[in-house]
Amino acid sequence: MPELAQNAPELVDSSQGCRESNKTPKQILNEVRGLKSDLQGEINRAQRLKDVDREVLKQQLDAITSKVDVIPKAGCEHLALLEEAYRELQNFEKKFTTNSQTLAKELELTRTEDPEQEVKGPKTLKEILKNLSTNSQKLLELALGNLKKLSNEEIQVLVQQLADPETLKRLDRTIASYGKAQQTLVQFSSQFPKAERYIDLVRDEMSQMWNDKILTGMREMLSGNGNLTWGTNIDRYENFSDLNYLTVMLAMNIIKGDNIVIPPDQFNSIADLVNHSNYKSAAGVLTDIISQHDREILSPETVMTKNANGHKRNGSPAENSLETMLAELEPILKQYPDVYEYVERAFKDQGLFKGLAFKLCSDIPDYAMARRAIRLITTPENEDMLQASLLKYAQYKIGELAPNYMIDINGREQKFSEVLAVALKDNRFDLDVMNAVSQFRKFYGDQKTEELIGYLPDNAQAGLGDFAQGSDLIAQAE
Amino acid sequence: MEQEIKILLNKSQIISDEEKERFLKLLPNMNDSEKAEFLNRLQKLEVAEKGFNQLSPEERAKEVEVYKSAMKQVYKKASNEIRTVIEKHDSAQDEKELKNLEDQLQNI
Questions:
Q1: DSSP class of residue A109?
Q2: In a domain, A104, yes or no
Q3: Does residue A327 belong to any structural domain of this protein?
Q4: B20 touches chain A (CB under 8 A)
Q5: Same domain, A429 and A473
Q6: How many domains does chain A contain in total?
């Protein structure tokens, strides 16, 4: 992974001017082009629309996106010219390869008239595809996207090679490996919650990687080694070391996206692990750095300071805007566009904050994610409304978790949910409340109690935490 | 012409090794006019690279800053336009659903 070493100054050095001067023109171009990812998010949203005329939608999106290549040049003539020249070169490649692909499609549709071939098996790529399982078809179709990179002669040889049943069997094994890798990736993402923001990116990279592998396989096969090469390739990739590589890339993306600075000594040890292909350990170190960063950034003190001082972590005044806040929020809420829009509206109509925390908690199945979103949008102005709304949700959840559970307080039976609701409303966590929670724990067990406490607002959790600590001390003293 | 293309490809810092390899493989399949077009674009890129490389680190940083800010504005505008497309679609859907409901009510 040589790119890691090249990017070292960018990741280690947080000084803007010094950072830019260390970058190669290529790195700078890649970086400015990276801004396009936000736009891509909107395009993806649009493409998920249902019941829409796809052709009309495509035309609309094309019309909009065609304008983004025209960036005003004033003050950045050199960079704009560089970007334009590079883009034109890429467009040329695209145009040229599209022409080749059209040729490939024509080939695909051409049936051979050779009667001997007819007996041996399918003749065209289209027919070959029909004989594969659905997953295999998908992958092969994906791989065939690479046909544009093959010459016409190569395509013709490939058609003949793929007609061999043994090759097809091996291809199916490759597809099975691909499926397993996908599955592992899904498991990985569930263990690494922040990955959800980048999962699509990784999937794309993975598809591209497998594309490249299959293309390599095709080329090697064409070079004369045939089926043997397919087998060798499959063995080489079945250990999924690439997935660990991707894990590192994913972690690096998060780190770059969040402007997390890696201390130079830590960076060197990560680079060392990567250079020895020990991706898993490198990913572990990077994950720890990200977790530590998240703990710091999401601790109540940091969030309050951050919001009181404007929003952006390393922000200039211009960046401390609603836009920045929403941009941070969007990756969390991208699956819930209506919630996101509601948040946007709330910043225009502050009254909407009164019910916003409740809406976030009830609409987002992942409660931790909802709380994180609430922390992100909390400002001194809306804090009270959000906390009140969060309290209502906590009361609602308590009522749901223990609707009729009765407890004994000083010899008098009371509804647990009502006791806790009053305590929450008054922000008063005295001995009676602690006693109530303790009874609840004895009856329902630790898991449900922790779940219940998890729904309480931060101050209530802190109150209960203080009490628990005090109780432990008393118990120890006794 | 091919030789000139290869020299310019090799000289470029912006074009990655992988891209260079790809272009070199495409080259034999190009006809003369395609080669001329390719050469023309490479020459333009060479001029642009040279100009950019002559900038001091400070000038370069300044250009990046200005370019990024301009890009953000353009992308933001495009992003809003796409959102409008989505919103229009959503409200059209709502109207459609309302119409369906009204039809159903009339049929009761």
A1: T
A2: no
A3: yes
A4: no
A5: yes
A6: 2
Question: What's the Rg (C-alpha) of chain B?
Answer: 26
A410, A356: one domain: no
Choose among A291, A299, A331: nearest CA to A191.
A291
Chain A: residue nearest B79 by CA? Answer: A39
- Which residues, including other chains, have CB under 8 Å from residue A65's CB and lie 6 or more apart? A39, A43, B78
Domain containing A430: what range? Answer: 402-477
Q: Could you say which of A366, A394, A422 is where a domain stops?
A: A394
pLDDT tens readout for residues A46-94: 777 766 777 777 778 878 877 777 777 888 888 888 888 888 888 888 7
Does residue A432 sit in the same domain as residue A367?
Answer: no
| B92 vs A: CB within 8 A | no
Those residues of chain A that have pLDDT short of 50 are 1-20, 102-125, 128-129, 132-133, 135, 142, 146-148, 189, 191-198, 224-242, 298-320, 467-478
State pLDDT tens for residues A113-161: 333 333 333 344 455 445 544 545 555 554 555 444 555 555 555 555 5
Looking at the partner chain, which of A42, A51, A57 has a beta carbon nearest the beta carbon of B79? Answer: A42
**B83 near A CB under 8 A:** yes
Q: Between chains, do B37 and A46 touch, taking CB under 8 Å as contact?
A: no
Mutation target to probe the B interface, by most B beta carbons within 10 A, among A20, A55, A60, A342 is: A20
Q: Which of B45, B85, B89 sits opposite A89 (nearest CB)?
A: B45
Whether residues A76 and B70 touch (CB distance < 8 A) is answered with yes
Whether this prediction's pTM lies above 0.80 is answered by: no
Q: Is residue B81 within 8 angstroms of chain A, CB to CB?
A: yes
Q: What is the ipTM of this complex?
A: 0.84
For residue B23, list chain A residues with Cβ-Cβ distance below 8 A: 93
Structure confidence by residue, pLDDT tens digits, A10-32 = 333 334 444 445 677 777 777 76
State chain A's mean pLDDT as an integer.
Answer: 63
Report yes or no on A319 lying in a domain.
Answer: yes
Note whether A386 and A308 are same-domain residues: yes
The structure tokens listed for A325 are 């806040």
Q: For A17, name the nearest residue in chain B, comparing CA atoms only.
A: B61
Residues A311 and A387 in one domain: yes
Q: Which residue, A376, A394, A412, sits at the end of a domain?
A: A394
CB contact under 8 A, A93 and B26: yes
Distance CA A384, CA A276 (A): 52
Min Cα separation A438/chain B (Å): 49
A414 and A441, same structural domain?
yes
Nearest partner of A334 among A32, A35, A48, A53, judged by Cα: A48
Which runs of consecutive H residues, i.e. helices, occur in A13-124?
A: 16-22, 25-34, 36-47, 54-66, 77-108, 115-120
